[in-house]
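Sequence of Secreted protein (Mycolicibacterium poriferae).
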Amino acid sequence: MSFVKNAVAGAVLGGSVLFTAGLGVANAQPVETAPDGLVNIAVGDTTILQGVPTDAAAATAGALCGSAPEDVNALAEQVDADGTDQTVCAGLPGGDLMLTQNVSAEAEQPETATAPGDAGQEAG
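Predicted 3D structure, token representation.
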């Protein structure tokens, strides 16, 4: 009889540990990019300027598209604040000119390097 009690108690405790571990994974939220005044400019699938100030992006995009920099600056600030991509103009030879949100350096995870001679050794 005690074997059955131990088996049931083990199953209940093991299930509760798995359940609570799953809650931690389910509640994880992606890192949101905060407005930092920087955007990217892309034509088609090619990024031509990355992490430039919104006013410089507006001047560049305005020159390429023949638009007023003031109008493009409003789009650039909207991209920086909301993170939604905006099309400045269409019909360029490489594709549409888009303003996109840059990814801040905090969101990028650098690769960890191992010291020479440490590879494959366990801490002991």
